Automatic annotation (TrEMBL):
Pfam families: AA_permease_2
Localization (cell): Cell membrane
Record keywords, A-Z: Cell membrane, Membrane, Transmembrane, Transmembrane helix
Source species of the chain: Silvibacterium bohemicum
Protein name: Amino acid transporter
UniProt GO cellular component terms: plasma membrane
Keyword Mitochondrion: no
Length: 450
């Protein structure tokens, strides 16, 4: 009998969550989107976004103290509403993790290719080769000892975070500070802040990755909550500081320039540090994306490993006999990601491909977070915990606002198609649910080896 190996601690769990949200990559992409939505008040969008995500995080924490399972929301929602509802939540989260894996892989290729271009090394599909190679390296890391993969993720992400934090501090020391970003003065400003929360949630997406290690940590009921809340608090502080630094770095009166910037971190690095540091920031962003691939691939494989028996594909729930890692699930996720890059990414390029798959993933993720806040609200009603009832309802209301703004006004093509793709994925999950006689995977059950 082979089981997932229980040898991970707080460091590894924190590393997985931090690498999946990829703070450096998030700041490289979310800034212009958030500023385009909220203008100069973008930092405030991240304050409210962090608050909403911390509420959702506490819902994960509450369930992590009750249930220890690699299925994350599959086990958590199933604990309250039954295994079939749990399966649907896990099914939605699987789509999110897969999309994050493919999107981050494309960004690795994009950033590294851009770095090579600075030195005159160019090729039409260089980014694609780099993305595919990066995916294979990530597969090798996650295939072997999970401790190695998670520590590599943490090391890479911390190096990247230190780079952008240094840049933010340098900016704040050299420009006049302003209170304007935190003092909206009309309804239009507050409306923009609400819309900007979409991109804050995008930046926090994946914080719950540590929950997929529930069967591999030595003390999951302590370690998983600490990793989740720690990731949210630290990344929230980082996001607000870096976002504010970028706003004042460009200048309150030049906010539209920031909204239209292709590489704001690189631009600010050139202006406030040096060209060489700007190149380092480009590499740091690529490193962050690489860590995100490792984290998303790990989380997706563990989710697929848990869902497979109930989804009618038990042959995917197989562990490596030596490493105790979900071998076949890792192959399935990485192979599917490479296929998506080759079939879709090569036609539209890394930016469009990455933006499209991440949009699909975030729509699915909001559904997951809504299921978690609803489950915790129902659980609190059963236990008559008024505080948790209020917390769950507040989280649900806060999440409904960005969900609405993700759908209306209707995005231009092909963005208007992505909600239908998510609906199609969920309908496929319903069919698997209807014809499956399995419930939640029993963590104590025998698991075949590869």
């Amino acid at each position: 009998m082979i089981k997932l190996r229980r040898d991970l601690g707080l460091l590894e769990a924190f590393g997985l969550s931090l690498s999946v949200i990829a703070p450096t990559m998030a700041m490289a992409f979310s800034t212009t989107l958030a500023v385009g939505a909220a203008g100069v008040f973008a930092p405030l969008s991240f304050v409210f976004g962090a608050f909403a995500m911390i509420i959702v995080g506490f819902c994960f924490v509450a369930f992590a103290r009750r249930v220890s399972n690699s299925g994350s929301v599959y086990a958590y929602v199933g604990h309250t509403f039954g295994p079939r509802c749990g399966f649907m939540s896990g099914w939605a989260l699987l789509l999110t993790y897969f999309m994050l894996t493919a999107g981050a892989a494309a960004m690795v290729g994009n950033f590294v290719a851009a770095f090579f271009a600075e030195w005159g090394i160019q090729s039409p599909h260089l980014w694609l080769y780099i993305s595919a190679l990066g995916m294979l390296v990530c597969l090798w890391l996650t295939w072997n000892d999970a401790r190695i993969a998670t520590r590599v993720m943490l090391g890479l992400e911390m190096l990247s975070v230190c780079s952008i934090l240094f840049l933010a501090i340098r900016i704040l020391m050299r420009v006049p500070l302003s209170r304007v970003p935190f003092h909206p003065n009309n309804f239009h400003a507050w409306s923009g802040i609400g819309y900007g929360m979409i991109f804050a949630i995008l930046s926090f997406s994946g914080f719950e990755g540590a929950a997929t290690l529930g069967e591999e940590t030595r003390d999951p009921k302590r370690v998983i909550p600490l990793a989740i809340i720690g990731t949210l608090v630290l990344s929230g502080i980082l996001y607000v500081i870096v976002m504010y630094a970028q706003v004042v770095g460009y200048g309150i009166d030049h906010i539209q320039t920031l909204a239209q910037a292709e590489a704001p971190l690189s631009d600010l690095s050139n202006r406030f540090v040096s060209r060489q540091f700007a190149e380092c920031i480009d590499l740091a962003t690529a490193t962050s994306a690489f860590a995100c691939v490792i984290g998303s691939l790990s989380a997706a494989a563990r989710m697929l490993y848990t869902l497979a028996p109930a989804g009618g594909v038990p042959w995917l729930a197989v562990l490596h006999p030596k490493n105790s890692t979900p071998a076949r699930a890792l192959l399935a996720v990485s192979g599917s990601s490479i296929a998506a890059l080759l079939l879709w990414g090569i036609k539209v390029g890394p930016i469009v491909f990455g933006g499209s798959v991440v949009t699909i993933g975030i729509l699915s993720l909001i559904l997951v977070y809504l299921s978690m806040t609803a489950a915790e609200t129902a659980e609190a009603f059963r236990r008559r915990h008024v505080g948790w009832i209020v917390l769950g309802l507040a989280g649900t209301i806060l999440l409904l606002w960005p969900l609405y703004n993700s759908l209306y006004p209707v995005p231009s093509r092909p963005g208007n198609l992505w909600p239908y793709l998510v609906i199609g994925w969920m309908l496929l999950g319903v069919l698997k649910n209807v014809f499956s006689k399995s419930g939640l995977l029993d963590p104590s059950a025998d698991v075949p080896t590869a």
